[in-house]
Design brief:
- With about 300 residues, this protein is mainly α.
- Helix content is about 80%, strand content about 0%.
- It has 12 helices and no strands.
- α4 packs antiparallel against α11.
Protein backbone atom coordinates (compact mmCIF):
# COMPACT_ATOMS: atom_id res chain seq x y z
CA UNK A 1 0.00 0.00 0.00
CA UNK A 2 2.85 2.39 0.80
CA UNK A 3 4.08 2.20 -2.80
CA UNK A 4 0.80 3.40 -4.27
CA UNK A 5 0.55 6.17 -1.67
CA UNK A 6 4.08 7.25 -2.63
CA UNK A 7 3.09 7.27 -6.31
CA UNK A 8 0.00 9.34 -5.44
CA UNK A 9 2.20 11.85 -3.56
CA UNK A 10 4.64 11.99 -6.50
CA UNK A 11 1.86 12.57 -9.04
CA UNK A 12 0.02 15.09 -6.85
CA UNK A 13 3.08 17.22 -6.09
CA UNK A 14 4.25 17.17 -9.70
CA UNK A 15 0.67 18.04 -10.69
CA UNK A 16 0.76 20.92 -8.22
CA UNK A 17 3.96 22.13 -9.92
CA UNK A 18 2.32 21.96 -13.34
CA UNK A 19 -0.89 23.79 -12.43
CA UNK A 20 0.97 26.35 -10.30
CA UNK A 21 3.00 27.09 -13.42
CA UNK A 22 -0.12 27.33 -15.59
CA UNK A 23 -1.70 29.67 -13.06
CA UNK A 24 1.38 31.90 -12.77
CA UNK A 25 0.79 34.34 -15.59
CA UNK A 26 3.79 36.56 -16.51
CA UNK A 27 1.43 39.51 -16.99
CA UNK A 28 -0.20 39.12 -13.56
CA UNK A 29 1.95 40.74 -10.88
CA UNK A 30 -0.33 39.37 -8.14
CA UNK A 31 -0.42 35.76 -9.38
CA UNK A 32 1.70 34.61 -6.42
CA UNK A 33 -0.75 36.15 -3.93
CA UNK A 34 -3.64 34.50 -5.73
CA UNK A 35 -1.81 31.17 -5.38
CA UNK A 36 -1.51 31.83 -1.64
CA UNK A 37 -5.25 32.51 -1.57
CA UNK A 38 -6.04 29.23 -3.34
CA UNK A 39 -3.68 27.06 -1.28
CA UNK A 40 -4.79 28.79 1.92
CA UNK A 41 -8.45 28.04 1.21
CA UNK A 42 -7.92 24.36 0.39
CA UNK A 43 -5.50 23.76 3.26
CA UNK A 44 -7.79 25.65 5.61
CA UNK A 45 -10.70 23.40 4.69
CA UNK A 46 -8.51 20.35 5.28
CA UNK A 47 -7.40 21.72 8.66
CA UNK A 48 -11.04 22.19 9.71
CA UNK A 49 -11.75 18.62 8.62
CA UNK A 50 -8.85 17.36 10.73
CA UNK A 51 -10.03 19.34 13.78
CA UNK A 52 -13.79 18.75 13.68
CA UNK A 53 -14.07 15.35 11.94
CA UNK A 54 -10.83 13.50 12.67
CA UNK A 55 -10.43 15.07 16.12
CA UNK A 56 -6.89 16.45 15.87
CA UNK A 57 -6.35 18.72 18.87
CA UNK A 58 -4.56 22.06 18.61
CA UNK A 59 -4.15 24.97 21.02
CA UNK A 60 -3.09 28.57 20.48
CA UNK A 61 0.23 27.60 22.08
CA UNK A 62 0.71 24.86 19.48
CA UNK A 63 -0.14 27.31 16.70
CA UNK A 64 2.37 29.91 17.94
CA UNK A 65 5.06 27.28 18.55
CA UNK A 66 4.88 26.13 14.94
CA UNK A 67 4.35 29.63 13.50
CA UNK A 68 8.05 30.34 12.69
CA UNK A 69 8.30 27.06 10.78
CA UNK A 70 5.00 27.69 8.97
CA UNK A 71 6.17 31.14 7.93
CA UNK A 72 9.45 29.83 6.52
CA UNK A 73 7.62 27.24 4.44
CA UNK A 74 4.95 29.69 3.23
CA UNK A 75 7.46 32.43 2.40
CA UNK A 76 9.52 29.95 0.38
CA UNK A 77 6.43 28.75 -1.50
CA UNK A 78 5.36 32.31 -2.26
CA UNK A 79 8.83 33.09 -3.63
CA UNK A 80 8.57 29.93 -5.71
CA UNK A 81 5.24 31.10 -7.12
CA UNK A 82 6.81 34.45 -8.06
CA UNK A 83 9.69 32.64 -9.75
CA UNK A 84 7.33 30.64 -11.96
CA UNK A 85 6.50 33.86 -13.83
CA UNK A 86 10.12 34.24 -14.97
CA UNK A 87 11.56 30.80 -15.70
CA UNK A 88 10.67 27.38 -17.09
CA UNK A 89 9.16 24.87 -14.65
CA UNK A 90 11.67 22.27 -15.90
CA UNK A 91 14.49 24.45 -14.52
CA UNK A 92 12.72 25.78 -11.43
CA UNK A 93 11.41 22.48 -10.01
CA UNK A 94 14.77 20.62 -9.70
CA UNK A 95 16.36 23.67 -8.05
CA UNK A 96 13.48 24.09 -5.58
CA UNK A 97 13.45 20.37 -4.82
CA UNK A 98 17.14 20.54 -3.91
CA UNK A 99 16.23 22.08 -0.56
CA UNK A 100 16.65 18.64 1.05
CA UNK A 101 20.36 18.75 0.28
CA UNK A 102 20.69 22.24 1.81
CA UNK A 103 18.71 21.05 4.85
CA UNK A 104 21.04 18.07 5.26
CA UNK A 105 24.01 20.42 5.08
CA UNK A 106 22.37 22.68 7.68
CA UNK A 107 21.79 19.75 10.05
CA UNK A 108 25.46 18.84 9.67
CA UNK A 109 26.73 22.38 10.32
CA UNK A 110 24.29 23.70 12.95
CA UNK A 111 22.89 20.60 14.69
CA UNK A 112 26.01 18.46 14.69
CA UNK A 113 24.30 15.60 12.84
CA UNK A 114 26.56 13.37 10.79
CA UNK A 115 26.22 12.28 7.18
CA UNK A 116 27.52 9.13 5.58
CA UNK A 117 29.98 9.30 2.71
CA UNK A 118 27.13 8.52 0.28
CA UNK A 119 24.96 11.32 1.69
CA UNK A 120 27.85 13.77 1.45
CA UNK A 121 28.35 12.70 -2.16
CA UNK A 122 24.63 13.23 -2.81
CA UNK A 123 24.72 16.76 -1.36
CA UNK A 124 27.72 17.50 -3.57
CA UNK A 125 25.85 16.23 -6.65
CA UNK A 126 22.85 18.43 -5.87
CA UNK A 127 25.05 21.49 -5.37
CA UNK A 128 26.86 20.81 -8.64
CA UNK A 129 23.53 20.37 -10.43
CA UNK A 130 22.00 23.59 -9.05
CA UNK A 131 25.07 25.71 -9.70
CA UNK A 132 25.45 24.08 -13.11
CA UNK A 133 21.83 24.83 -14.03
CA UNK A 134 22.29 28.47 -13.13
CA UNK A 135 25.55 28.67 -15.07
CA UNK A 136 24.09 26.97 -18.17
CA UNK A 137 21.00 29.20 -18.09
CA UNK A 138 22.94 32.44 -17.77
CA UNK A 139 25.67 31.53 -20.27
CA UNK A 140 23.39 30.13 -22.95
CA UNK A 141 23.69 31.91 -26.27
CA UNK A 142 20.80 34.33 -26.77
CA UNK A 143 19.93 33.00 -30.22
CA UNK A 144 19.90 29.39 -28.97
CA UNK A 145 17.75 30.50 -26.03
CA UNK A 146 15.17 32.05 -28.36
CA UNK A 147 15.29 29.11 -30.78
CA UNK A 148 14.62 26.39 -28.20
CA UNK A 149 11.71 28.42 -26.79
CA UNK A 150 10.10 28.83 -30.19
CA UNK A 151 7.51 26.11 -29.51
CA UNK A 152 6.94 26.87 -25.82
CA UNK A 153 3.66 28.29 -24.49
CA UNK A 154 5.50 31.18 -22.82
CA UNK A 155 8.74 32.92 -23.84
CA UNK A 156 11.21 34.05 -21.16
CA UNK A 157 13.93 36.68 -21.20
CA UNK A 158 17.12 35.63 -19.45
CA UNK A 159 17.64 37.40 -16.12
CA UNK A 160 19.54 36.91 -12.89
CA UNK A 161 16.28 37.23 -10.92
CA UNK A 162 14.79 34.24 -12.75
CA UNK A 163 17.47 31.87 -11.46
CA UNK A 164 17.85 33.51 -8.03
CA UNK A 165 14.18 33.11 -7.03
CA UNK A 166 14.13 29.26 -7.06
CA UNK A 167 17.53 29.26 -5.31
CA UNK A 168 16.07 31.55 -2.64
CA UNK A 169 13.11 29.17 -2.32
CA UNK A 170 15.54 26.30 -1.87
CA UNK A 171 17.45 28.06 0.94
CA UNK A 172 14.38 29.27 2.87
CA UNK A 173 12.59 25.91 2.53
CA UNK A 174 15.73 24.20 3.85
CA UNK A 175 15.69 26.59 6.83
CA UNK A 176 12.08 25.54 7.41
CA UNK A 177 13.09 21.87 7.39
CA UNK A 178 15.87 22.63 9.84
CA UNK A 179 13.48 24.47 12.17
CA UNK A 180 10.97 21.66 11.72
CA UNK A 181 13.41 19.10 13.10
CA UNK A 182 13.69 21.17 16.29
CA UNK A 183 10.03 22.12 16.78
CA UNK A 184 8.69 18.61 16.13
CA UNK A 185 10.43 17.53 19.32
CA UNK A 186 7.63 19.45 21.10
CA UNK A 187 4.67 18.84 18.76
CA UNK A 188 3.27 15.75 17.09
CA UNK A 189 3.14 15.74 13.28
CA UNK A 190 -0.66 15.97 12.93
CA UNK A 191 -0.89 19.01 15.20
CA UNK A 192 2.02 20.67 13.42
CA UNK A 193 0.42 20.04 10.02
CA UNK A 194 -2.89 21.55 11.14
CA UNK A 195 -1.04 24.59 12.55
CA UNK A 196 0.71 24.99 9.19
CA UNK A 197 -2.56 24.75 7.27
CA UNK A 198 -4.32 27.26 9.54
CA UNK A 199 -1.42 29.70 9.07
CA UNK A 200 -1.77 29.29 5.31
CA UNK A 201 -5.52 29.96 5.64
CA UNK A 202 -4.90 33.16 7.61
CA UNK A 203 -2.36 34.44 5.05
CA UNK A 204 -4.69 33.42 2.23
CA UNK A 205 -7.42 35.61 3.74
CA UNK A 206 -4.93 38.50 4.03
CA UNK A 207 -3.90 38.01 0.39
CA UNK A 208 -7.56 38.05 -0.65
CA UNK A 209 -8.15 41.29 1.27
CA UNK A 210 -5.13 42.93 -0.39
CA UNK A 211 -5.81 41.76 -3.96
CA UNK A 212 -9.61 41.98 -4.09
CA UNK A 213 -10.52 44.65 -1.52
CA UNK A 214 -7.54 47.02 -1.70
CA UNK A 215 -6.37 46.52 -5.29
CA UNK A 216 -9.94 45.80 -6.48
CA UNK A 217 -8.89 43.05 -8.90
CA UNK A 218 -11.63 40.86 -10.29
CA UNK A 219 -11.16 37.10 -10.10
CA UNK A 220 -12.40 34.96 -12.98
CA UNK A 221 -12.94 31.20 -12.92
CA UNK A 222 -11.10 30.65 -16.22
CA UNK A 223 -7.97 32.51 -15.11
CA UNK A 224 -7.83 31.38 -11.47
CA UNK A 225 -9.04 27.76 -11.70
CA UNK A 226 -5.55 26.28 -12.35
CA UNK A 227 -4.41 27.76 -9.02
CA UNK A 228 -7.15 25.92 -7.14
CA UNK A 229 -6.35 22.68 -8.97
CA UNK A 230 -2.72 23.16 -7.90
CA UNK A 231 -3.86 23.79 -4.31
CA UNK A 232 -5.91 20.57 -4.27
CA UNK A 233 -2.95 18.59 -5.64
CA UNK A 234 -0.62 20.19 -3.06
CA UNK A 235 -2.89 19.28 -0.13
CA UNK A 236 -3.62 15.76 -1.42
CA UNK A 237 0.09 15.15 -1.97
CA UNK A 238 0.87 16.16 1.59
CA UNK A 239 -1.84 13.80 2.89
CA UNK A 240 -0.53 10.83 0.85
CA UNK A 241 3.06 11.66 1.81
CA UNK A 242 2.35 11.43 5.54
CA UNK A 243 0.83 7.94 5.29
CA UNK A 244 3.39 6.62 2.77
CA UNK A 245 6.37 7.70 4.86
CA UNK A 246 4.84 6.49 8.13
CA UNK A 247 4.29 3.06 6.54
CA UNK A 248 7.72 2.62 4.92
CA UNK A 249 9.91 5.71 5.09
CA UNK A 250 13.14 4.28 3.68
CA UNK A 251 11.40 2.98 0.56
CA UNK A 252 8.78 5.71 0.06
CA UNK A 253 11.06 8.73 0.51
CA UNK A 254 13.24 8.23 -2.59
CA UNK A 255 10.17 7.58 -4.74
CA UNK A 256 8.46 10.77 -3.60
CA UNK A 257 11.63 12.86 -3.67
CA UNK A 258 11.95 12.28 -7.40
CA UNK A 259 8.67 14.05 -8.18
CA UNK A 260 10.60 16.85 -9.90
CA UNK A 261 11.36 14.31 -12.67
CA UNK A 262 7.62 14.10 -13.32
CA UNK A 263 7.40 17.91 -13.17
CA UNK A 264 10.05 18.16 -15.89
CA UNK A 265 8.16 15.55 -17.95
CA UNK A 266 4.83 17.39 -17.62
CA UNK A 267 6.49 20.69 -18.54
CA UNK A 268 7.86 19.08 -21.70
CA UNK A 269 4.52 17.47 -22.67
CA UNK A 270 1.95 20.09 -21.65
CA UNK A 271 3.90 23.36 -21.60
CA UNK A 272 6.09 22.53 -24.61
CA UNK A 273 9.22 23.55 -22.70
CA UNK A 274 12.42 22.47 -24.38
CA UNK A 275 15.85 22.58 -22.74
CA UNK A 276 19.34 22.07 -24.06
CA UNK A 277 21.38 18.91 -23.49
CA UNK A 278 23.44 20.83 -20.90
CA UNK A 279 20.27 21.75 -18.99
CA UNK A 280 19.12 18.14 -18.89
CA UNK A 281 22.58 16.93 -17.84
CA UNK A 282 22.52 19.25 -14.81
CA UNK A 283 18.94 18.20 -13.98
CA UNK A 284 19.94 14.51 -14.05
CA UNK A 285 22.87 15.21 -11.69
CA UNK A 286 20.47 17.06 -9.37
CA UNK A 287 17.86 14.29 -9.40
CA UNK A 288 20.42 11.56 -8.68
CA UNK A 289 21.53 13.47 -5.60
CA UNK A 290 17.94 14.09 -4.47
CA UNK A 291 17.00 10.40 -4.80
CA UNK A 292 20.11 9.29 -2.88
CA UNK A 293 19.26 11.72 -0.07
CA UNK A 294 15.62 10.58 -0.11
CA UNK A 295 16.77 7.01 0.42
CA UNK A 296 18.47 8.03 3.67
CA UNK A 297 15.73 10.41 4.89
Amino acid sequence: MWFWLAIVALLCWSGSDLFSKIGSKPDDKHSHLKMVMAVGLVMGLHALYEIFIVGTSITMGDFLTYLPVSMLYIISMTIGYIGLRYIELSISSPICNSSGAIAALGCFIFLGQRMSSLQTFAVLLVCIGVVGLGFVEMKEDKELHVKRQSTANVKYTKSLLAILLPILYCIIDAAGTLADSLVLEKLNENTANVAYELTFLFLGIMAFFYVVVIKKEKLTVKRESPKFVAAIFETAGQFAYIFAVSANAIAAAPVISSYCVASVLWSRIFLKEKLSIKHYAMIIICVIGIVILGTFE
